[in-house]
Specification:
heterotetramer, A mainly alpha (328), B alpha/beta (514), C mainly alpha (328), D alpha/beta (319), A: mainly alpha, 1% strand, D: 319 residues, six-stranded parallel β-sheet, six-stranded mixed β-sheet, binds adenosine-5'-triphosphate, binds magnesium ion
Chain lengths: 328, 514, 328, 319
C-alpha cells in the first residue's frame, strides 16, 4: 500500500525553471518581448536601432498609460472604455483653446471634461452599481456627442499644437524620448500606489471581494469614484501627450487605442475579473503590442492575412503566458 | 473482515504546487456502514472527497469501486458510479430555482420533496431561487438532492457545520437510517458527538496521510484526537468567571447597549447589554433573527427602530465603516464573505488599516509587517502556503478573519459562528483567544450553533426566538436542556410537553456532556 | 405574482417603454403607419440577431467580442458565393453559411476551453482573425444576394383570419426574426442544455460539481452565438444585397442591448425576450430622433444618456428592492 | 424661409473631411434660402444602418435626400423606396447603383490616378514608392486603388516598396511611417490616401531624406507644402464641399431644373510645389485658420454659393 506513496521527488530542472518564472511573472513576458524583437530583427536586419527604439517607446508610452487606466479599473473588476474619448476630448480642447487662451487656462479647460466624465463614471459604478462596461460606454458616447457639438464652435478659430506638447510628444534628448519625462513618474506613481498605498490595497481588495472590503470598513463608492476620476485624469494627460505626438487634432484621435489598452493589460497578466495583476506587466504588454504592430507593418502580406496573424499571436502570447504563470 | 469494501482507495496523493494536500491517503468503506473521515483542519479531508467524486484529479493512487477500478474523472462519472457528495460549499446553482436545479442534475422531484420534508423543512417552495435561500437550508437541500437518487455511497463533507441544532439532528437521523438501509455514508465532521452517535468506524488523516482506522466505541475520542494531532491536547473549560469581574468594574457604561432594536419582521424589540471584558453568547435556532441582529450591530443593515449605544453614547450605523470606527468588528460565519481570497494573508489582515479615506496614503510597511506577523504568531496561522488565502485550509482561513480585528485592535468583536467547521485543536485555540480578549477588557458577542461552546466561553447567554430575546442566563444556569427549551421559545420552568421537545436530547448527549 | 415581477418585471417595464415610444412616435408623425413599422422591423433584424448571439454567451458567463466580425465574415461569404450564381444556389448558400457560423463559434468556445485564456481576450484575438478572413474573402464591399432572399424581408405576411389592415402590421422581417430566434431559443431554454448554459454562467464550480459538462456547454454556447451571428450576417446581405468586410456597429450595440434587456453581465440571469425588446426600443429611439430632426451630434448624447439612465434606473430599483437582511 | 425639407444621411462621424461636408450642406441650405429644415442622420454605421436612416427620413417625409453612401450598391433598396415615395435622391462623393438617383461625386479613381502619375513622374519614372492606403474594405479605398494601379501600370520601373492600410487614422499612419523609416528601406516617394500631414511631420522629425509626397488638399498638408523646407509634393483636391453641391443639385431638381445627365463628376485638381505656377496656386489655396484635417477647397465655384464664414459657422436653416 505504501509503495505507491508519492515521496517528494527531486524536482526536475524544467519544473524548477517553471516555478521560478511563475513566481516572477515578468520574466516570461520580457522573454516574449525579446523574442518578438529578435524576429523583427531577423525579418529586417538593422531595423532594431536607436531610432527604432525611441519610436517604439514614443508609441508605447501613451498606450501604456491608458493600459494603466485599464489595469487599475480591472483590478476592481471594472473596465474603462471611456479613456479613448476622454483623451481625445482633452487633446482637442487643448489644441483649440490654446489658440486664444493662456496655456494654464487651456490646460484646466482640457482636464475639466476628464474629471467630469471620471466622476460620473465613478458615481454610476460606485453608487448606482451600473456595470462599468455599460457606464463607461455610455459616458464615452455622451462625451463624443459633446465634443462634436463643441467642435462646430471652434471651426473658425482653428487649432494649434502647443510647442511644449510637441516637444514632449516627439522630441528626443540624448536619444531618449522626452515623453519618458512624463511616463517614468507616472509609472512609478502607479506602481507605488498599487503596492504601497492604502488606496492601492483597496483596489485589489474591492475587486477580489467587495463584501469583505465593506465589512472591513471600506466605502466602496469612495474607492470607485476616486479610481475612475484618477483613470480619467490619466487618460486626459495621455490625450495631451498624444496630440503632441500625432499633431493632428481629430475627433477620433485616441479611439484606436482603447481596445489595445485593454489587450495590453490582459497580456500583462491583469485579471479582468479583478483582484489580481499589476502595472509592470501591463507596461511590457504595451511594448509587446507596439512591437507586434511594427512587425506586422513590415510584413509583405495582404491586410487580411496580417490581421489574422495579429489575432493568433495575441492569443498565443496570452495563452503561453498563462500556462507559464498559472501552474503552481 | 468478511464483506468486500464498496469503496476502496489507497495511496491517494495530490499536490498543489509545493503544498501536498494529500500524501498517502487510504479509505475503505464497507457496504452499509457510516464511516467517519476525521482530521485536523488542512489534513486533506475535503481534498479526498473531491478526488473520490471526480471534482479534482489525483496525482497518484488507486480507487476501486465494488472491486473494480473505475475512471472517475468528473462529478458526472462519480454520479454514474453511485457516488454522491455533499461538498463543504453549497453546490446548488445560485441563479436557478430549486426545480431547475433538480432538472439540471436529473434528480427525481417527488423523492426530493419527501426528503426535504423528512429533513425538517416543511414549507419549501421549489420555485424559489437558490440565491434567496439561507445557507443552512441550502445545505439541507443539497443533501436531499443527493438522497433522492439513492446513491450507494453518500459523501458528506461537514454537512452539519453550518446547521442549527434542530436541522443538524434531523440530518443525523436520516444519515443513520441510510446506514441501516445498507447504503454507505462517508461522514466528515469535527463534532465528536455526531461521530460517536452515528458512525461505525473512522479513518483518521493527518497531514495528508491516513494514520489509522478505528472502530467507534465509547472512549475512542481520545485516541482519535491523539492520532489527528499527533499529540495529546487538553480539553479545558476556558470560561473563566474571574476574568469577568475584571471587565465589569462598577459604574462604567456598558460597551454596547441595545434597546428595543427592531428590523422589519425579523427583529422585535431586542434589548441587551454587552459589558467591557465580557463574552456574551447568542443562542438560537436557524433563522430566528440572529443574522439580522449581527448585521445591524455591524452596520450592514439599518434597523427600523430602537437604539444602539456605544460606551453610553447613542450610535447610528449606516455603513460597516461606522461600526468599525466605533471599534466594533464583525466576523461573519461564512469565510468567503470576509476574505479576499486571491490576496495574501498579510493583505487580508491589514485590510482595515487602509479602509478610511484618511488612510489611503503610503503604507508604513515595516510597522505593518510587525503587527501582522505578531497576530499570525499569536493565532498560529499556518502560512506554509504563503501567498493567497484561498490556499489555506478552512480552519486557517477562519483564523485570518479573526486575526484581522485583533491586529486592528477592535474593542468589540461580533463573532458569528466562528468555529464552524474547525477542528478540535483550533477550536480550543479560538476559545482561549476569545477569553484572552475578554481578559484584556474587550467585549465579544458570540453566536454559535453548538450548545457546548456556550458553556465553554461565555459569561452570559442570551437566547433569541422569533426575533425576540426570550431569555438571558448566566452561564452556570445554561445547561443544554434549558438552552434548548429557551431556543424553542419556552420560558424557563415551563414543562416541555410540545411534541418536538420530547426528543430535544438525543441519546448521544449523555456521552457528550462529559 | 411577486415572483413574476421579480423575474419578468424588467421585461414588462421595457415592453411598457416600447409601447410608450410607439405612442410618442405616432404623436410626432401622425402619418406613422404599417409601412414604417415594416422599416423598423427590417432595421431591427441584424441588431436582433447580434444581440441574440451576445445574449447566449453572456448568460453562459462569457462575452463575445466577435459578434460583429462574425456577421461581417458570414455576410461577405454569402454575398460572394451568391455573386453571379443562380437563384437555386442560394438554397445551398444559406445552410452553408449558417453551419460556418456554428463551427466558427464553436471554435471560439474550443479556444477558450483549451487555452484557458479569459473569453474577452480570446474573442478579442479571434475578432482580428475573423476581420482578416473577411478581408480575404472580399477586399471591398461587393457580391450579391439572391432575389428570393431579398424578397424574404420585404412586405408582410398574410395571416389567415386577420383582416388586411392587421396583416399590414405583420412584416415579414419580424416573422423571420421570431421564427429564427424562438425556434431555437424556446426549446433550448427548457432543455437540460439550456439549464446547463445558465448554470455555468451562474456558478461554474457549482455547475461542474452538479455534473454539468462545463467545457462542452461553453463550446455549445459559443457555437449558438456563432449561429445567431451568421443569421445576422445573412440578414445584412439580404437587406443590402452586398457583403461588406468592415464590421458594422453591432458589437457595442449588442452589449448595450443585452444589459438594457435585463441580462446580467456576469451570467446566469435573464432571457432573450428582454434584449430583443431593448433592440426595438433603441431602434425606435433613433427613428424618433430622425423624425424630430434633432441635431445629429446631440443624438449621440441622447442615446448615451438613455443607455446610462435606463441602466442606472434598473440598478436603483434593485438597490431599493433588495430584501432586508441581504448585504449588497 | 424656404419651403423644402432636406434629409441628409452620412455614415462616418468625427473625420475632418466628413465634418466639412456636413457643414457645406448646412451652409448651402442656408445660403440658398429655399430650405426650411435640414434633417441630418450623421453617425458611424454601415450600409444596413444607412438603409435604416434613409427609411426614417422617408417616414419623416422629407422632400429630398442627399446621401454619402456607405456603399454604392448596398443602399439601393432604400433609395428606390425613396424615389417611389416621390423624394429626390442625390448621392454625393461616391456613385450609387440605383438608377433613379442623381449623383454628384468626386472622381475617386481619377483622384488617385492624377496624384500617382505626378508622383511617378517626379520620381523620374523609376524607384520605390511607399503606398499608404485608406481603410481596408472601404469602397472609396478600392476605387482609389484602381486609379493608383492604373498609374503604376504606366510606369513599369516604379515598384511598391510597401503597402499599408492607415484605416484613415492619423495615429496609425504615423506609427506605420515611423516603423517603415526605421527599417532603413530606401524609398523615392510616398503616396498617401488623405492622411498626409502626419507623414510630413514624421519625415521632418526623423530627419529622414525628403522624398516627394502626394496627399490631399487638407489644410495642414497644404500649409506644409508651402513652408516645409525641401518638401516636394502635391495636393490633389477632394473637396468636402461636394456636400454643398449635392444640396444645390437637389434643390435644382426640386425646382424642376433637371440636369442633363444623372451623374455629375467633379474632377480633382492637382496642386504641386515643384513649379512656380503650382507654388502660387498653393499659396493662394493655403488657409492656416482651418483645422488641419479640413480640405482647403471649401467651395466649388459653380455649385456652392455660401461664404467662408457661413461654412465655418456650420449653421443650417433655423439654427
Ligand atoms: N486549491 C488549492 N491550492 C493550494 N492548496 C490547497 C488547495 N486546496 C487545498 N489546499 C491545501 O491542501 C490542504 C488540505 O486541504 P483540505 O481542504 O482538504 O483540508 P480539510 O481537511 O478539508 O480541512 P478543513 O477541516 O479545514 O476543511 C490544506 O493545507 C490546503 O491549504
Ligand atoms: N499600516 C499599518 N501597519 C501596521 N499596523 C497598523 C497600521 N495601521 C494601523 N495599525 C495598527 O492597528 C491598530 C489600530 O490602528 P488605527 O489607525 O486603525 O486606529 P485608529 O483608532 O483609527 O487610530 P487613529 O485615530 O490614530 O487613526 C493599531 O494597533 C496600529 O498599530
Ligand atoms: Mg474541508
Ligand atoms: Mg473545515
Amino acid at each position: 500500500m505504501t509503495d505507491i506513496a508519492t515521496m517528494p521527488q527531486p524536482v526536475s530542472f524544467g519544473r524548477r525553471l517553471k516555478r521560478f518564472m511563475a513566481d516572477r511573472p515578468l520574466i516570461p513576458l520580457i522573454i516574449l518581448l525579446i523574442i518578438l524583437v529578435v524576429i523583427l530583427q531577423i525579418l529586417r536586419p538593422g531595423i532594431v536601432n536607436e531610432r527604432w527604439l525611441a519610436n517604439t517607446a514614443k508609441f508605447a508610452i501613451p498606450l501604456a498609460i491608458l493600459a494603466g487606466c485599464q489595469t487599475m479599473t480591472m483590478l476592481t473588476g471594472g473596465i474603462d472604455l471611456s479613456v479613448g474619448t476622454v483623451a481625445t476630448m482633452s487633446a482637442f480642447i487643448m489644441a483649440t483653446q490654446i489658440v486664444n487662451q493662456d496655456p494654464t487656462v487651456a490646460f484646466l479647460l482640457a482636464m475639466l471634461p476628464a474629471v467630469l466624465i471620471g466622476f460620473v463614471n465613478g458615481i454610476g459604478v460606485g453608487v448606482f452599481r451600473v456595470h462599468p462596461l455599460i457606464m463607461t460606454l455610455g459616458t464615452s458616447l455622451i462625451g463624443t456627442g459633446f465634443l462634436q457639438v463643441y467642435q462646430r464652435t471652434v471651426i473658425a478659430s482653428g487649432a494649434k499644437i502647443p510647442d511644449f506638447l510637441n516637444w514632449l510628444g516627439t522630441g528626443l534628448t540624448y536619444g531618449f524620448p522626452n515623453a519618458l519625462l512624463l511616463f517614468v513618474p507616472v509609472a512609478v506613481l502607479i506602481v507605488f500606489m498599487l503596492n504601497r498605498t492604502g488606496f492601492g490595497r483597496l483596489l485589489y481588495a474591492v475587486g477580489d471581494n467587495e463584501r469583505a472590503a465593506r465589512l472591513s470598513g471600506v466605502r466602496y463608492w469612495q474607492v470607485i469614484t476616486a479610481l475612475y476620476v484618477l483613470s480619467s485624469l490619466l487618460a486626459g494627460i495621455t490625450g495631451l501627450l498624444y496630440i503632441g505626438l500625432i499633431k493632428a487634432p481629430s475627433l477620433s484621435l485616441a479611439e484606436p487605442l482603447v481596445l489595445p489598452s485593454v489587450a495590453a493589460a490582459v497580456i500583462g497578466g491583469t485579471s479582468i475579473f479583478g483582484g489580481r495583476g499589476g502595472y509592470m506587466g501591463t507596461i511590457i504588454g504595451a511594448l509587446i503590442l507596439t512591437v507586434l504592430t511594427t512587425l506586422l507593418t513590415i510584413l509583405q502580406m495582404p491586410e487580411g492575412g496580417r490581421r489574422i496573424l495579429f489575432g493568433f499571436i495575441v492569443l498565443f502570447v496570452t495563452a503561453a503566458y498563462l500556462r507559464i504563470v498559472e501552474d503552481r | 473482515m468478511t464483506t468486500n469494501p464498496l469503496l476502496d482507495a489507497t495511496g491517494v496523493a495530490k499536490n498543489y504546487g509545493a503544498v501536498a494536500a494529500l500524501r498517502n491517503a487510504s479509505l475503505s468503506v464497507l457496504p452499509g456502514e457510516v464511516h467517519a473521515l476525521m482530521g485536523a483542519n488542512g489534513a486533506g479531508k475535503s481534498t479526498l472527497v473531491k478526488i473520490l467524486t471526480g471534482a479534482i484529479n489525483a496525482d497518484a493512487g488507486r480507487i476501486l469501486i465494488r472491486g473494480k477500478q473505475l475512471d472517475v474523472r468528473s462529478p458526472a462519472d462519480a454520479r454514474r458510479a453511485g457516488l454522491l457528495p455533499v461538498y463543504q460549499e453549497p453546490s446548488l446553482i445560485p441563479d436557478l430555482d430549486v426545480l431547475s436545479n433538480l432538472r439540471l442534475t436529473g434528480t427525481p422531484i417527488e423523492p426530493f420533496r419527501a426528503w426535504v420534508r423528512e429533513l425538517g423543512i416543511p414549507n419549501l417552495d421549489i420555485r424559489d431561487t437558490a440565491r434567496d435561500i439561507p445557507l443552512a437550508i441550502l445545505r439541507v437541500l443539497d443533501l436531499a438532492r443527493a438522497l433522492a437518487v439513492e446513491p450507494d455511497v453518500l459523501l458528506l463533507d461537514e454537512m452539519t457545520a453550518a446547521l442549527p441544532a434542530n436541522l443538524a439532528e434531523k440530518v443525523l437521523e436520516v444519515v443513520r437510517r441510510q446506514g441501516d438501509a445498507g447504503r454507505s455514508v462517508i461522514f466528515i465532521s469535527h463534532r465528536f458527538v455526531e461521530i460517536s452517535a452515528l458512525c461505525d468506524r473512522a479513518t483518521v488523516l493527518r497531514d495528508g496521510s491516513t494514520v489509522g482506522v478505528v472502530d467507534i466505541e465509547p472512549g475512542i475520542e481520545e485516541r482519535i484526537v491523539e492520532m489527528m494531532l499527533g499529540t495529546r491536547i487538553e480539553k479545558t473549560r476556558v470560561a473563566a468567571r474571574s476574568a469577568n469581574d475584571v471587565g465589569t468594574v462598577g459604574g462604567r457604561n456598558p460597551r454596547l447597549s441595545v434597546r428595543n432594536l427592531q428590523l422589519g419582521t425579523k427583529l422585535n424589540d431586542v434589548s441587551f447589554d454587552l459589558a467591557n471584558g465580557e463574552v456574551v453568547g447568542v443562542f438560537a435556532l436557524e433563522g430566528q433573527g440572529q443574522d439580522e441582529l449581527f448585521a445591524a450591530l455591524a452596520g450592514s443593515i439599518r434597523p427600523t427602530g430602537g437604539t444602539i449605544e456605544v460606551d453610553g453614547a447613542p450610535a447610528k450605523f449606516s455603513h460597516p465603516s461606522d461600526a468599525v470606527q466605533a471599534g466594533i468588528a464583525y466576523v461573519p460565519g461564512d469565510r468567503t464573505e470576509a476574505l479576499a481570497m486571491q490576496r495574501s494573508v498579510r493583505e487580508n489582515i491589514a485590510l482595515p488599516f487602509s479602509a478610511g479615506l484618511r488612510k489611503w496614503g503610503p503604507i508604513r510597511m515595516r510597522r505593518e509587517q510587525v503587527v501582522v506577523s505578531g497576530v499570525i504568531g499569536r493565532l498560529q496561522i499556518d502560512t506554509r502556503v504563503l501567498g493567497e488565502v484561498q490556499r489555506l485550509s478552512g480552519g486557517n482561513q477562519q483564523k485570518v478573519t479573526i486575526a484581522r480585528w485583533i491586529a486592528a485592535n477592535a474593542r468589540t468583536i461580533l463573532c458569528f459562528d466562528p468555529t464552524r467547521g474547525i477542528d478540535v485543536g483550533t477550536k480550543q485555540e479560538i476559545y482561549k483567544l476569545l477569553r484572552e480578549l475578554a481578559g484584556q477588557g474587550k467585549s465579544v458577542l458570540f453566536y454559535t450553533s453548538e450548545m457546548e461552546e456556550v458553556q465553554r466561553v461565555c459569561d452570559r447567554v442570551i437566547v433569541i426566538f422569533g426575533g425576540r430575546v426570550v431569555d438571558t442566563f448566566p452561564v452556570e444556569d445554561a445547561d443544554e436542556p434549558t438552552l434548548m427549551r429557551a431556543a424553542y421559545g419556552l420560558p424557563r420552568g415551563a414543562r416541555a410537553d410540545v411534541g418536538i421537545l420530547a426528543d430535544v436530547r438525543p441519546a448521544s448527549d449523555a456521552e457528550a456532556a462529559s | 405574482m411577486s415572483r413574476f415581477f421579480r423575474n419578468q418585471g424588467w421585461v414588462a417595464g421595457l415592453l411598457a417603454l416600447l409601447i410608450f415610444l410607439f405612442v410618442i412616435t405616432k404623436l410626432i408623425q401622425p402619418g406613422y403607419g404599417s409601412g414604417d413599422f415594416g422599416s423598423l422591423a427590417r432595421a431591427v433584424l441584424p441588431y436582433a440577431f447580434a444581440v441574440a448571439a451576445q445574449t447566449v454567451v453572456v448568460i453562459a458567463g462569457g462575452i463575445d467580442l466577435t459578434v460583429a466580425a462574425m456577421m461581417a465574415l458570414t455576410s461577405v461569404t454569402a454575398a460572394s458565393m451568391m455573386n453571379g450564381a443562380s437563384e437555386e444556389y442560394a438554397l445551398f448558400v444559406v445552410p452553408f453559411v449558417l453551419a460556418m457560423g456554428l463551427v466558427l463559434g464553436a471554435l471560439n468556445g474550443v479556444l477558450i476551453v483549451v487555452t484557458r485564456v479569459p473569453d474577452i481576450v480570446v474573442t478579442l484575438a479571434t475578432l482580428f482573425v475573423l476581420q482578416g478572413a473577411a478581408l480575404l474573402v472580399l477586399g471591398a464591399p461587393g457580391g450579391a444576394a439572391a432575389e428570393w432572399l431579398k424578397a424574404s424581408v420585404i412586405g408582410t405576411v398574410p395571416v389567415p383570419g386577420l383582416p388586411d389592415w392587421a396583416d399590414a402590421w405583420v412584416p415579414k422581417a419580424l416573422v423571420l426574426l421570431v421564427v429564427c430566434l424562438f425556434i431555437i431559443w424556446i426549446p433550448l431554454r427548457r432543455s437540460r442544455l439550456g439549464l446547463s448554459i445558465y448554470a455555468i454562467g451562474s456558478n461554474e464550480l457549482a455547475a461542474f460539481r452538479s455534473g454539468v459538462p462545463v467545457a462542452r456547454t461553453r463550446i455549445i454556447a459559443y457555437a449558438l452565438s456563432g449561429l445567431f451571428a451568421a443569421m445576422g450576417g445573412l440578414s445584412l446581405t439580404i437587406s443590402t444585397g452586398i457583403g461588406a468586410p468592415i464590421p458594422g456597429p453591432y458589437l457595442l450595440a449588442s452589449v448595450a442591448a443585452v444589459v438594457l434587456g435585463g441580462v446580467a453581465l456576469g451570467g446566469g440571469k435573464g432571457g432573450l425576450l428582454g434584449p430583443i425588446i431593448a433592440v426595438f426600443v433603441l431602434r425606435l429611439v433613433r427613428t424618433d430622433l430622425t423624425l424630430l430632426a434633432i441635431d445629429p451630434n446631440v443624438t449621440a448624447i441622447i442615446e448615451g444618456l438613455i443607455m446610462v439612465a435606463v441602466v442606472m434606473f434598473g440598478a436603483f430599483i434593485t438597490i431599493r428592492g433588495r430584501p432586508v437582511g441581504a448585504t449588497p | 424661409a424656404g419651403k423644402y425639407t432636406i434629409g441628409i444621411s452620412n455614415t462616418v462621424q468625427g473625420n475632418g473631411w466628413r465634418e466639412e461636408m456636413i457643414c457645406a450642406m448646412k451652409a448651402q441650405a442656408l445660403a440658398s434660402g429655399e430650405v426650411a429644415k435640414l434633417n441630418i442622420a450623421h453617425r458611424n454605421t454601415d450600409a444596413a444602418g444607412q438603409l435604416e436612416d434613409i427609411r426614417n427620413l422617408i417616414s419623416a417625409k422629407v422632400n429630398a435626400i442627399v446621401v454619402n453612401p456607405a456603399d454604392p450598391a448596398g443602399i439601393k433598396a432604400g433609395l428606390e423606396e425613396a424615389t417611389k415615395a416621390g423624394i429626390v435622391v442625390v448621392a454625393v462623393d461616391q456613385a450609387v447603383t440605383e438608377p433613379s438617383a442623381y449623383i454628384i461625386s468626386n472622381n475617386q479613381e481619377q483622384y488617385a490616378y492624377l496624384g500617382a502619375k505626378w508622383l511617378f513622374q517626379q520620381m523620374g519614372g523609376k524607384g520605390e514608392v511607399f503606398y499608404m492606403r485608406g481603410a481596408a474594405g472601404a469602397s472609396a479605398d478600392s476605387d482609389r486603388d484602381k486609379g493608383f494601379k492604373k498609374a503604376l501600370a504606366e510606369f513599369p520601373d516604379v515598384k511598391v516598396a510597401q503597402e499599408v492600410f492607415t484605416g484613415w487614422q492619423q495615429d496609425q499612419a504615423k506609427q506605420q511611417i515611423l516603423s517603415f523609416l526605421a527599417t532603413g528601406t530606401p524609398i523615392n516617394g510616398i503616396w498617401t490616401s488623405g492622411i498626409d500631414n502626419v507623414i510630413v511631420d514624421a519625415l521632418v522629425e526623423q530627419q529622414a531624406p525628403m522624398v516627394p509626397v502626394v496627399g490631399a488638399d487638407n489644410a495642414g498638408f497644404v500649409g506644409q507644402l508651402n513652408t516645409v523646407k525641401g518638401l516636394v509634393g502635391a495636393a490633389v483636391t477632394n473637396p468636402g464641399s461636394i456636400g454643398g453641391a449635392g444640396v444645390t443639385l437637389a434643390l435644382q431638381i426640386l425646382d424642376g431644373k433637371k440636369p442633363a445627365q444623372q451623374t455629375v463628376l467633379v474632377n480633382p485638381e492637382l496642386w504641386e510645389n515643384a513649379t512656380d505656377a503650382g507654388k502660387a496656386k498653393l499659396k493662394s489655396a493655403a488657409d492656416p485658420s482651418l483645422s488641419p484635417e479640413w480640405p482647403v477647397s471649401i467651395s466649388i465655384p459653380e455649385w456652392t454659393t455660401y461664404t467662408k464664414d457661413q461654412i465655418v459657422a456650420c449653421k443650417g436653416p433655423g439654427e
